[in-house]
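Record pair follows.
FIRST:
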Amino acid sequence: MRRFPWIVGRAVVREALGPFFLAASVTTFLLVIRFLFTFAELLVSRDASTADVLRLLAYSLPHVVVLTLPMALLFSAVLTVSRWSADSEVIALQACGVRASWLMRPLFGFGVLIFALDVALALWVLPEANRRFQETTRRMYFAAARAALEPRVFNSAFTGQLVYVDRMHPATGLWEGVLVFDLTDAAQETLITAQHGFLVEDSSTGELWLSLREATVHTLRPERPDRYQRSRNSEMRILLQAPPSASVTIRYGPRESSTAELWSRAHSPQESESERRESWVELHKRVALPAATVAFSLLGFPLGLRNRRGGKGYGLTVSVLVVVGYYVLFNNGELLARSGKLPVMLGIWLPNLLVVALAFAFLQVVSKSPSVRNPGPSQLVALWQRLAGVWRLFRARRNAAAANGRAWAAQRCAPPLLLGCIDRWVLRQTMTFFLLVLVAVCGLYIAVNFSEQVEEIQKNQVPLVVVASFYLHLLPQILHDTLPLAFLIAFLGTAAVLEKNNETVALKAAGISLARVALPLLGVGLALSVTLFVLDETVVQKANRTSEKLEDVIKGRHGPRSYRFTDHSFLFLPDGRTVVNFLLFDAEKKTLVRPSVYVFDDALALRARWFAQKATYQDGTWWGENVWSRVFLPDGGEDFSPRSGRVALPITVSPEYFSREFRKPSEMSFRELESYIRRLQTAGYKVDRLLVQLHQKLAYPLSLVLLPWLALPYAFRLGRKGTVMGIATALVLAMAYFSLTALASKLGEVSLLPPVLAAWTPTITFALLALNRQTSLRT
């Protein structure tokens, strides 16, 4: 038997390294891109140091990397073998007496090395990173809580406390006009008003306190409205309880526990059966997920072994389908194992076993073929090839008139403004690549997010239809976040292939400028920009609100949440000085059940309070039944008035105000947010944060044109390096753009930059850079 030529093995591994690191970088960046804005907000809020933010980012990476390494290995294996097969190098090796299946040996060895790295991360690095991430989050809770608070919005982040702040001064941390509704005692209503306030952290205990100045405490038992308590304090402090996710726990969960601790729990008779099962599930996960690298290295060879041009799109498509299918099986197996419906080992390892079985089945197909000219890893691929051949034949006959002469064809390709045959061909290549990348990104995002949610889904017994609906409504936001990067990758990938195949040389020799070739692609980018803006204005906002509701179901949140105005425990009226609290709103009968009306002055000091058992809207007025009112006089006295019969309540809005959908500033359309800002400016409020969000609604979609325009000079300088370098360049540009966007927007929100400048800084910077780089484009 001939010995395997290891020089070929080294060549295979060397070629696989580039796609591997590229795929790992792209998938990791895509999965952490949304966290950049959170980290930037923590950094710019001045309550979190740069070291803490970078440390938090580093602790969050191992969880993502453990998942992305198997994906990257499969993609690199399929892409490498596909490229060798497409360039007939596999046939050349066969002619030299080297079996095609021998190429699997270096890929298998490469997979074993990545498995060793990944399993080390999963067994030792990941638990420690999860633990330190949790500890750092607790330590930074003061900064995180402050960054999450927004002015003129009821904040329910603190258990039992509903906090409202009229004005915030980020530079000093001082608040003006503070309301605190204490919801801890259902039998007693407590309202605290204060002129000023600020957050204070107790460094010895880690507790977070709200320090108030010139505070007044209003206490009332609803069954005895005649007994009303009011006390004034020049200074007072309120302990803000941390939310459950940030509460200190003595015992870490399975994800934060070390491997030794899990092993001890799994064998401990003192632990309950469910806790032992949870420990076994986590132990098997820490080995089974990295083991997918070995299984994917076996499967990647037969999937990539096909002798035809254009294998990159095939490799990307197959890789995504396999990865998504694998994680769906893995997560469902984990659910069944956690619930005890399947043995732990079978539930966790079944996807790996299926992948290995599939790999050997495909290898049998390959080994039975004397030539790898078209091994066809499955009948579906062969069917697809036949259908593609029929389509090409149909198009050839339909365009038979085009073959009458080359001069006529050249004339069709020549017009500079109309789409010719070259334009259509380039657009077809780019859009195909774009759709593949978009499907890949969405599939990977959903697969990874599902793996993070699977524990909550099992614990809260969430129905499958709720989970499917959640990801369906999450999809518009995923598209919104990833469209610019996906189109940039498609743009650079297409340009890199043209350059690699010397097609750009042929175009320039024919007198066609490369700028002219890229023009329709930039036009597509402009069209996608408009599409992204319309998507944000119409679909994304509604889908986000629905996905937020469904996420609460998945996470088992049963407390009051605010999605529609009728769901609000407390609601400000448009005058900004009247709060209405009600138990229930009946839209058909136009009735409020047990409404309470709080009337404040400009300093948010309580001036009057009304209560009714029921209020009905008639003839433009809300009429209450069993009403009492209490007016606080300027001299410090009170006027309590129980009233009989129907009494007009100081509610100045129609029922439509309570039935319409509530929208946070980030969930408004451009015109709605613009109108909202105008009202706040008229009232004298600082609106820097909202102005940044408003202008970003215009600036962000332009990145679909801006980034490809900037990448144009780099796209045609990649030479023979091809798609890999094209995608790498796209990744670097996208990282720079999104990092600058995150930092500049947060600087604008805290008034360190003018809001308009902060929102448009990334666009202006990259546009100027693009103009400068166009001078170096050799068209």
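SECOND:
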Amino acid sequence: MAAMGRTQRRAGWALMALLLADLLALSDMLAVMSVDLGSESMKVAIVKPGVPMEIVLNKESRRKTPVTVTLKENERFFGDSAASMAIKNPKATLRYFQQLLGKKEDNPHVALYRELFPEHELGFDPQRQTVRFQISPQLQFSPEEVLGMVLNYSRSLAEDFAEQPIKDAVVTVPAFFNQAERRAVLQAARMAGLKVLQLINDNTATALSYGVFRRKDINTTAQNIMFYDMGSGSTVCTIVTYQTVKTKEAGMQPQLQIQGVGFDRTLGGLEMELRLREHLAGLFNEQRKGQSVKDVRENPRAMAKLLREANRVKTVLSANADHMAQIEGLMDDVDFKAKVTRAEFEELCADLFERVPGPVQQALQSAKMNLDEIEQVILVGGATRVPKVQEVLLKAVGKEELGKNINADEAAAMGAVYQAAALSKAFKVKPFIVRDAVIYPILVEFTREVDEEAGVRSLKHNKRVLFSRMGPYPQRKVITFNRYSHDFNFHINYGDLGFLGPEDLRVFGSQNLTTVKLKGVGESFRKYPNHESKGIKAHFNLDESGVLSLDRVESVFETLVEDSTEEESTLTKLGNTISSLFGGGTTADSKENGTSTIQEEEESLAEGSKDEPGEQAERREEGEPPVEDTSLPPPPEPKGSVASEGEKATDKENGDKSEAQKPSDKGEARSEGVPPAPGEEKKQQPSRKQRMVEEVGVELVVLDLPDLSEDELARSAQKLQDLTARDLEKQEREQAANSLEAFIFETQDKLYQSEYQEVSTEQQREEISGRLSAASTWLEDEGFGATTVMLKEKLAELRKLCHGLFFRVEERKKWPERLSALDNLLNHSSMFLKGARLIPEMDQIFTEVEMTTLERVINETWAWKNATLAEQAKLPTTEKPVLLSKDIEAKMMALDREVQYLLNKAKFAKPRPKPKDKNETRAEPPLNASASDQGERVIHPPGQTEDAQPISEPETETRGSEPADTGPLELEGSGAESEQKQQPTGQRPALKNDEL
């Protein structure tokens, strides 16, 4: 039994060790990241255990990384390296490619990109009607693939900073991105192997960052804050309401709600730089007027230099009235130098500054607010640093000042990484409810047959709003189609986009999203001919990323069945209850038929405000139920109690299920699988409702922009993996070549140093020098085509050749320090032993065996040292030494172990009792004292307390013997020395040789 118990304990410890190893491995995957994907640059942030929200530094130790990629035949460059390559190779350097995401070839933004960057050749993808970058006949990349490269690079930066792998991320996108653009970003992330927890709007991420760091200032009183974000490529104005609301799970919690959004897709710092670049190009042409030279605008390298200089001049003019633009060797080795004033810059961008108030007015209109309700206007984005932008905006909002109390560059990245930590299961953060808003309304369109007065049947087109403009999301909706008994189609399109201008509508692209073709509706009706149809239910989901999906379509039927609850036993009822809790409740018949008996929700009434004029009256006349929306309505404006956003997202479909389980006012029975209340078990219920659900086949025809197929995604992902592997191989080869070259030069230099010449012969040095010269020649002649393995093998050969020489030098360097330490230890040990032997016999705490053992170790160490030094002196310096530093360290450890043993014993030894005084009196014990109480009672001398009990004479024990009545010595850890616990009076534990 004891052996079995030990076996079980060992198995338990092994299992615990395995679980601990799994937990430690899992802890290496806990970090999450965010990517604030801007038009010109990106910011990456991480959060991991022990490291709160932190901006990642790139390889150049900068907090901001250019969104630039240089693609060449055999190598890639990212970030600052790619930005510098834009001057040397502008055709292969891709920038500002995000505006091509989700766009077809005929989109105005594609034409604008060709105009701004004529050096890029945009090919045509006939399958998706999109464009792709034609770097060379062999190199072609879609915008999604280029973005996937950038996301993969951002992850590598985050992993290097976090020192652990990262796979989960939250990525920011502009609030005005439509469905096609959002899906394109998600596809790019899939190509990079990055799991996107959420696509968060950059304005929402900024608002979240602002609220998280000011949660103490948020209360039940609503605060309306306007964020004006002008970046490099676009401008977005957002109105956000902050206040605390009551949630079911966590009580009062802060919440931000997006109330209004306005935007301008092309108003930003890039447009200002392009205007300034055009101005500088004109000045350069004027300076060379009369010379037979071509226009500078026809030279891509010169235009790339001018764009970089325009960016610098724009930044300087934000703080200075004028500045000198100068470029060395702009074109044909001709330098350029010209003075630019702030007034000239503002005149060049006058029409752009007139567009600054536009997003403000759009945001106010969508929020149905006025400027008096806005408490503060906060600037976000780098382009808001332009003085004229601030001047025009301040006049437009009518405030005394503009808020600058937020990091304009990093706020979105910090808000996004906070959301990433909240969505990750590895972190627990303080709740902060985020209620984003739908920018573009989405509706469902379908046709149905109606009876005219003359008895003629005709088709009528119907529209139902699925997600309204500025409605909250994430959100689920269920639309019920009645009076359909055969297969039919319906369409998912954008709603009223009248708030967009004509140019924005052209850039927006297709307003038709998807055509849904249902198959199997008629078959479901034939399968249940005696059941009452409850309609065809389509379940929609607008997720946290703002991406719409059709989860499923079901054909629902209902019928009355006989109740057999009285015949069921109590165990059967209990079994049904338990099975229903775990998703049971399916009958045998339903399983055979491939359907399930479910507890469907009671369907809510249609939203009358979403019907076309006269639609409800017409349906009432025809007796047709409306198209139903079973989603929960958005919570009211919180005055003290508001449901959280998470509840809205999860309870859309299940919120009414509890209502279906309640008995109706008309005495309807419960659904199958739900037992009656205790008080109702005795009542006989003749029938109950049973709801049957049949899955309907769905075929989706995407109309806005076809998504990449799974095969195409896999090919693109493999293409990016191959490029990454090639880059890693290139880096490894370069590192191997650099290591080989450095070893050759360093070793050749060492051969002329005196310390290396002393331990080597002339012949040895000549052999090494000759091999090094041959390797250097090989590296120059054939090293360019050598593989990484060949370079590493060559380096290993040279290191093996020089190992003996380097070993002798290193050993001679270590001798003085090691020998000095050994001498000091021997001297101190000898003095300690001498002092121990001088202790009187009455006070001696060490046994003779212990002191003899220490003396033997000291003598052996002295003898080994003297003998080894004598033998080493006879050897020539060019041979392998017999005096090794590792042997010296081993001798020191053995001697130190013996000394430490005795020191620890002396540290915890108790003093012997003093001899008793002859005049000491003894108190008589009481008559009723027990035998154990009749001990000696000592009258202590002055200054000694009663607690200082006399200690009995310890038994003399030899080292290594087992004490008779002493328990085992307790150690804090394996092989570790620990303090001995206080033993009872009269007992002293003996230390064994293996208990050190």
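COMMENT: The CA atoms of residues 318 and 387 lie 6 Å apart.
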